Amino acid sequence: MACLHLFFFLLAHTNGIPLGHTNVMSRAVPETTMPQLLSDNDAAQKKVSHASRQIPQAIIIGVRKGGTRALLEMLDIHPEIVVAATEVHFFDWDDNYQKGLSWYRDLMPLSYRHQITIEKTPGYFTSPRAPERIHDMNSSVKLLLILRDPTERVISDYTQVYYNRLESHKPVQAFEDVVFKNGALNTKYKAIQRSLYDVHMAKWLQYFSNDQIHIVNGDTLIQNPLPELQKVEHFLCLSPKIMPSNFYFNQTKGFYCMRNEGKERCLHESKGRPHPTVNRTVLDQLRMYFSEHNKNFFSMVNQSFNWN
């Protein structure tokens, strides 16, 4: 049934049916036939003329430092997926949201009727407004949420800010000095707040059912990407096109890179930066703090992860 909903969403947008149309199934779909004797150039031009920019049928909503860029680029291997080049921040930034849906659509890549458009903005998951706004756009949209161990995610979050500040010649603080204030865990630290998955998930479940939100294991995606990507293909009702041959392990970088149509590419050099060595006591306190939140989250989504 979920795949049927996605099919009719694609059909509606390629035939000009507005969002929220209640009788998509009753609308006749015009047949498009191509003349039998077209030159290669004419055929190519006709194909391009059928491409259009579509509202995303699937959105990677987060989480920051969970592996969203890796997931997007790996999914881009699939011939039936087209991806937005940049983070759009349409549903979490008020200034962008006020520009309207047409502005949002214009930022999407060209696609054909059989393709799914995906955009990713990690800030959506922790945004208080994004769930309702996305639901208002399309209540049947499919959501991808990639998560990793919340403690490791905090360290990655800190590491990104640390290097950004170094590059900007700004002062930096040790991890322990940021995570602790006055001898106690600094639970107001934004990186810690972002790792409270149960708190944020509760807002999404007010608008979407669990079967509309597929959770990708970010820790597994890094170590063995194919099984996680195959689950996403199934969730998006796509034929299996991503293969083992699309990946190779780069010994220098220490993670998997991609190979597709004779071209190889790795994630940006900013990905996979070395993390600071963190005091064991600090790690234990972070894990203890997240433990109850993790249990709540596991109960919400009816699955568990090895985060302890």
Write the layout of secondary structure elements.
Blueprint lengths: L1 H13 L25 H10 L2 E2 L4 E5 L5 H8 L5 E3 L10 H4 L3 H6 L3 E2 L4 E5 L9 H8 L4 E6 L2 H18 L7 H5 E2 L2 E2 L4 H5 L2 H8 L8 E5 H6 L1 H11 L11 E4 L4 E6 L2 E3 L14 H22 L7
Parallel strand pairs: 2-5, 2-6, 3-5, 6-9
Antiparallel strand pairs: 1-4, 7-8, 10-11, 11-12
Helix tally equals: 13
In whole angstroms, the N-to-C terminal distance is 36 Å
Number of strands: 12
Largest sheet: 5 strands, parallel
Low-confidence stretches: 14-46
Strand order of the largest sheet: 3-5-2-6-9
Q: Which shape, going by the Cα principal axes? A: globular
The fraction of residues in strands falls at 5-15%
What class, by secondary structure content? Answer: alpha/beta
Question: What integer value in Å does the Rg equal?
Answer: 21 Å
Helical residues, percent: 40-55%
Mean pLDDT: 87
What series of H and E elements makes up the topology? HHEEHEHHEEHEHHEEHHEHHEEEH
3D structure, described in words:
With 308 residues, the chain is of the alpha/beta class. The protein has 13 helices and 12 strands. Strands 3-5-2-6-9 form a 5-stranded parallel beta sheet. A 3-stranded antiparallel beta sheet has the order 10-11-12, with no helix packed on it.
Summarize the structure.
By secondary structure, the chain is an alpha/beta fold.
For the structure shown, list the relevant keywords.
308 residues; alpha/beta; three-stranded antiparallel sheet; 13 helices; 12 strands; 40% helix
